[in-house]
Amino acid sequence: MYRVGTMGHSRGGKGVMWEASDKHSSEVPDGVRIAAVLALVPVKFDDLEGDHSDTLVTHVPVGVVTGSCDGAVHEAGQEYLDDAEWMTHEPAYSVSVQNANHNYCNADWTPPSPSGDDDSTCPRQELTPDTQQGALTAYATAFYERFLKDDKPSKDVLTGKQRLPGVTSKVRIVQPVNGG
Question: From edge to edge, which strands make up the β-sheet containing 169-174?
Fold first, then answer.
């Protein structure tokens, strides 16, 4: 349990950031080490005075996925990288998938599921659920391969050197302050 990867969608995205945060890292059970945290189109709301310590992650590699057509939280997840910039000791990556929406990141929320809903802000250009979920699977696989198995070639997906299948995306990288 020393190489645990966590992933959450929407409020679950904020939840995995909270769990891996510097402030809450001591609450992880003994013998467990979170080694990578991936937030899919996460919500981002902090203390009204601007305190973001509940979700500030600087000692675990972070990946954030956002979508340009997300009608629920928009690109708010990018703020997790803003918070960590000039502070993180581990790399942080994000990818904004063009024409991706919020609910297609979760098969239970994707139509025709009974709880499915199309929340896209650009329905004429939105990706199909299969295309969006395929790109997310490729990104998540590369992220966890890189940080849980130390597979260095997987980094090419995270940096944008290798494109995600079937989508246009924009990557962002926050380098560790120690240059690592």
Answer: 4-9, 34-40, 62-67, 92-97, 169-174
